[in-house]
């Protein structure tokens, strides 16, 4: 912020212009382009131009119009240390830069975000901002919405975005009408790499391991020769015989096909390579390789073009050994429905690639970006224990393949007009597609009979599933910013956007069942590949039967179309008070259409959600002193249910082994948000901030656990109301160690820490009702919602600490990173039962980077150790000191090393 007196002259102009030149010297030069002027310099320059006398000749002589020397006053420039992103935005926001990625050594966007104040990561991929679940946060790539390959979420899992393809990330915690109206905790805007300043070529190679996995025993299954790459070689492709049978539109069973047809279709299924679990004596170490290159060149007068390419591959193994329990409290007495120990080994292979092209001329820029991510998890797991509901000791074996893929094409542009960028036009268009393919998801149950595991294909059964999700998003938008020709710095912004999100999902399930009663005695003890052999199928000892749709719809189509427009006014009220006032209008139609997977006929259900909203937002920034400011924000936003939450289709979560069923009666949630934050920037890259926030939520969506027909499943409902409030503290500073030594020259200590306290309350009055899935009419809310309970997913305490050493001259960065997240509700317990709780606890990481030179070539060595405290994952239910370990395991300590060099 700049404040000038009413009288000024040549000395004032010189002082201000020297300030501008100092700022310009730190910016990339673009001759003749006012776009290269940094915001601080632009403000000073424009104000001087307005305050100086009209005649340039008078300024040159240093005289006023009356021929007298000018009376000089001081020029006060505010915001000396305020980072440029903080200076440009009126909202409460946090920023992750390319340098932050290097310091913490995070491999993907999800890992990096857990260092941000008020942010926690659930399931290693979904972001929770200020204790609000992933439904209250959205992710954008260069301002465009993204599709999701996840069956349970419309939000994109952020572990899909490797750090190598990102220039930075913005986490905005107060709402701006330029963003989509689905905003609760915050929005995460990922910025991909742009035109490089100069050509470069970089290679990297690395490896690593895990204390609970690498070199230890684990489980696997053969699959195909190409499984290490994450791409199936065709082995798991649905058999042609089965495809032809499905094409008839009939359920595949003896009622619609001949006995010989059923035999032939059953024999076409892959057998030994996918059914047989194998114990691997020593699990392989992790490995990764990366490549990036950039080129830029001048293209004549004030024009520049650039190309950037990034590609990488990583292969990682992780083994989990732990407990899975289901319990039921009768008063304070705990009874177990089931009690298992499990062992799981996952092999995760990821391929990523980014190709970007940019062209700049004058104050105009056009960019093209294509991002490709292919991520596959191959899992083998087994569990054994007592199933009291079934009445015997059981063992379940699983072999699974989860293949996710995302392809995003985007074009965007920016055009500035006028001497001081008085008019700016920005536009974007994107087409993105995400898929999730799960072929041959197999499970088989055994019963312990006299110390031997037996499968009779009757009392205990098996399944083979094929499923897929395809999610597509087409979007576009334009933003216009006009600096109004008035005495004050006042900007009018307006824009429009469109998003069309379409999703299709289907699942087919098949079982091999005994034809007439249980299998013969000796066949029950056969190894799986012998059990499902062609001989047994040809002899009718087993027959194939499709069980698709036995528990509800097996397929659905979904759509969400959003048309948005906004207007916003931003400017100075006084010399040290700035305001942004805007309103966004959104018209949206959201629908989920379950259909009969055999006939394609849509099943009856609720009408689509058709809503339009006017969403206002106000922010105030008060520059109370040099480098100190207060921000205030108020807004109204919404939270829409996700597709899978509305689809009455059963889905098994492989991580928890819980069944999920959607609720087609869900409605939009509406939020009212208030924020205030104090910011003090006391040095370059050093700051202290303190903030408070308060949110009121109507119709928040929560996940609840139910029990029916001997099956525990998880669904969703709208609670009546909830409030969330809390406070945030953040501090960052560099320190001098206070001693001198040759080996310490150039080193400085670095400390960054943040803490967020959050409290929440879900309210359900006696006369409130909710509409759970499976109930024909609304029921009393307190049957499913505990009045006064905390909001699902909300942790009371979130704290982060980074402490390290940096030396720019020697290329050294060593950082110790600690993270603490207190317990939170992962799901509501079934009526009368305690909630499911998750306890993330304390994690600690260490990251080291050191650049060395071999001749003229720099080589960077990297080392990272994750989860040094070996903190376990623990989800549980508890009452009267008794605890049910719903899911518990130790992820182990992970280590990685890398070498990279640049040409």
Describe the structure.
This is TonB-dependent receptor. It comes from Luteimonas rhizosphaericola. Belongs to the TonB-dependent receptor family. This protein is mainly beta. 9% of the residues lie in helices and 54% in strands. A hairpin with a 3-residue loop joins strand 4 and strand 5 (126-129).
Strand content: over 45%
Query: How many helices in DSSP terms?
Result: 12
Main sheet makeup: 22 strands, antiparallel, barrel
Count the E strands.
Answer: 45
Main location: membrane
Organism: Luteimonas rhizosphaericola
Domain TonB-dependent receptor plug: 89-187
Subcellular location: Cell outer membrane
TL;DR of this structure?
The protein has 903 residues and is mainly β.
How is this fold's topology laid out?
Blueprint: E1 2-3, H1 10-24, H2 39-51, H3 56-61, E2 76-77, H4 84-88, E3 93-97, H5 98-104, H6 109-113, E4 119-122, E5 126-129, E6 137-141, E7 144-145, E8 166-172, E9 186-192, E10 200-210, E11 218-220, H7 240-247, H8 259-267, H9 272-275, E12 278-280, E13 286-298, E14 303-330, E15 333-361, E16 364-387, E17 392-417, E18 423-449, E19 452-454, E20 462-483, E21 490-514, H10 528-531, H11 534-538, E22 542-546, E23 555-574, E24 577-594, E25 609-625, E26 628-639, H12 643-646, E27 650-652, E28 659-661, E29 669-683, E30 686-698, E31 701-708, E32 711-718, E33 721-735, E34 748-763, E35 769-770, E36 779-780, E37 797-807, E38 812-821, E39 824-827, E40 836-838, E41 841-854, E42 857-866, E43 873-879, E44 882-889, E45 894-902
Parallel strand pairs: 6-9, 28-32
Antiparallel strand pairs: 1-2, 3-8, 4-5, 6-7, 8-9, 10-13, 10-45, 11-12, 13-14, 14-15, 14-44, 15-16, 16-17, 17-18, 18-19, 18-20, 20-21, 21-22, 21-23, 23-24, 24-25, 25-26, 26-29, 27-28, 29-30, 30-33, 31-32, 33-34, 34-37, 35-36, 37-38, 38-41, 39-40, 40-43, 41-42, 42-45, 43-44
């Amino acid at each position: 912020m700049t404040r000038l007196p009413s009288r000024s002259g040549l000395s004032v102009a010189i002082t201000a212009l020297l300030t501008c030149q100092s700022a310009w010297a730190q910016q990339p030069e673009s001759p003749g382009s006012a776009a290269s002027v940094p915001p601080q310099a632009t403000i000073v320059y424009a104000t001087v131009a307005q305050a100086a006398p009209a005649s340039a000749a008078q300024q040159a002589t240093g005289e006023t119009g009356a021929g007298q020397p000018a009376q000089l006053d001081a020029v006060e420039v505010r915001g000396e240390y305020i980072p440029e992103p903080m200076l440009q935005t009126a909202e409460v926001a946090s920023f992750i830069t390319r340098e932050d990625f290097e310091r913490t050594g995070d491999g993907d966007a999800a890992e990096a975000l857990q260092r941000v104040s008020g942010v926690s990561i659930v399931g290693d991929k979904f972001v929770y901002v200020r204790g609000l679940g992933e439904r209250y946060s959205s992710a954008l790539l260069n301002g465009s919405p993204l599709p999701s390959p996840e069956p349970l979420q419309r939000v994109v899992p952020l572990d899909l975005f490797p750090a190598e393809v990102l220039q930075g990330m913005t986490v905005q915690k107060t709402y701006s009408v330029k963003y989509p109206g689905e905003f609760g905790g915050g929005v995460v805007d990922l910025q991909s790499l742009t035109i490089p300043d100069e050509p470069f070529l970089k290679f990297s190679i690395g490896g690593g391991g895990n204390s609970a996995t690498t070199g230890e025993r684990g489980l696997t299954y053969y699959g195909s020769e190409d499984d290490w790459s994450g791409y199936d070689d065709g082995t798991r492709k649905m058999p042609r015989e089965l495809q032809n049978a499905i094409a008839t539109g009939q359920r595949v069973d003896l009622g619609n096909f001949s006995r010989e047809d059923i035999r032939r279709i059953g024999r076409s299924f892959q057998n030994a390579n996918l059914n047989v679990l194998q114990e691997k004596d020593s699990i392989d170490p992790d490995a990764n390789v990366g490549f990036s290159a950039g080129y830029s060149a001048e293209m004549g007068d004030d024009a520049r073009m650039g190309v950037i390419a990034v590609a990488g591959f990583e292969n990682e193994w992780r083994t989990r050994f732990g407990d899975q329990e289901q319990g039921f409290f009768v008063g304070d007495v705990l009874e177990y429905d089931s009690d298992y120990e499990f062992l799981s080994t996952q092999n995760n292979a990821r391929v990523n690639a980014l190709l970007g092209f940019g062209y700049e001329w004058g104050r105009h820029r056009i960019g093209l970006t294509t991002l490709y991510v292919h991520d596959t998890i191959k899992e083998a797991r087994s569990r054994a224990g007592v199933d009291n509901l079934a009445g015997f000791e059981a063992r379940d074996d699983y072999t699974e393949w989860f293949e996710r893929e995302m392809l995003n094409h985007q074009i965007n542009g920016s055009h500035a007009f006028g001497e001081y960028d008085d008019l700016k036009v920005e536009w974007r268009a994107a087409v993105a597609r995400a898929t999730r393919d799960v072929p041959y998801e197999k499970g088989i149950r055994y019963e312990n009979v006299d110390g031997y595991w037996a499968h009779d294909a009757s009392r205990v059964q098996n399944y083979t599933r094929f499923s897929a999700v395809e999610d597509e998003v087409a979007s576009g938008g334009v933003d216009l910013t006009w600096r109004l020709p008035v005495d004050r710095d006042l900007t009018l912004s307006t824009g429009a956007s469109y998003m069309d999100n379409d999703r299709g999902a289907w699942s087919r399930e098949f079982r091999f069942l005994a034809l007439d009663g249980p299998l013969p005695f000796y066949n029950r003890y056969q190894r799986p590949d012998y059990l499902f052999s062609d001989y047994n199928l040809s002899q009718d000892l087993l027959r194939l039967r499709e069980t698709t749709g036995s528990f509800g719809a097996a397929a659905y189509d979904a759509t969400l179309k959003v048309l948005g427009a906004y207007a916003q006014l931003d400017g100075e009220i006084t010399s040290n008070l700035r305001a942004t006032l805007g309103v966004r209008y959104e018209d949206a139609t959201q629908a989920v259409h379950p259909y009969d997977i055999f006939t394609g006929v849509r099943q009856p259900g609720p009408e689509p959600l058709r809503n339009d909203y006017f969403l206002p937002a106000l922010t105030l920034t008060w520059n109370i002193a040099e480098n100190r400011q207060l921000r205030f924000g108020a807004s109204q936003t919404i939270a829409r249910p996700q597709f899978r939450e509305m689809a009455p289709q059963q889905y098994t979560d492989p991580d928890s082994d819980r069944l999920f069923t959607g609720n087609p009666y869900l409605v939009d949630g509406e939020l009212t948000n208030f924020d205030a934050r104090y910011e003090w920037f006391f040095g370059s890259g050093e700051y202290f901030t303190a903030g408070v926030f308060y949110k009121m939520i109507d119709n928040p969506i929560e996940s609840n656990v139910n029990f029916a027909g001997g099956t525990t499943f998880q669904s969703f409902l709208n609670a009546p109301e909830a409030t969330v409030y809390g406070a945030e503290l953040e501090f960052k500073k560099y320190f001098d160690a206070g001693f001198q030594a040759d080996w310490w020259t150039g080193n400085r200590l670095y400390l960054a820490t943040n803490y967020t306290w959050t409290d929440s309350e879900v309210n359900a009055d006696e006369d409130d009702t909710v509409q759970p899935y499976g109930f024909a009419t609304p029921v009393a809310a307190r049957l499913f919602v505990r009045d006064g309970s905390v909001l699902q997913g909300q942790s009371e305490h979130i704290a982060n600490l980074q402490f390290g050493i940096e030396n720019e001259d020697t290329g050294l960065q060593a950082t110790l990173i600690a993270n603490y997240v207190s317990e939170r509700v992962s799901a509501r317990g079934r009526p009368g039962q305690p909630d499911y709780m998750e306890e993330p606890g304390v994690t600690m990481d260490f990251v080291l980077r050191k650049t060395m030179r071999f001749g003229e070539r720099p080589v960077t060595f990297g080392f990272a150790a994750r989860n040094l405290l070996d903190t376990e994952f623990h989800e549980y239910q508890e009452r009267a000191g008794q605890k049910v370990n719903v899911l518990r395991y130790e992820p182990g300590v992970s280590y990685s090393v890398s070498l990279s060099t640049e040409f």
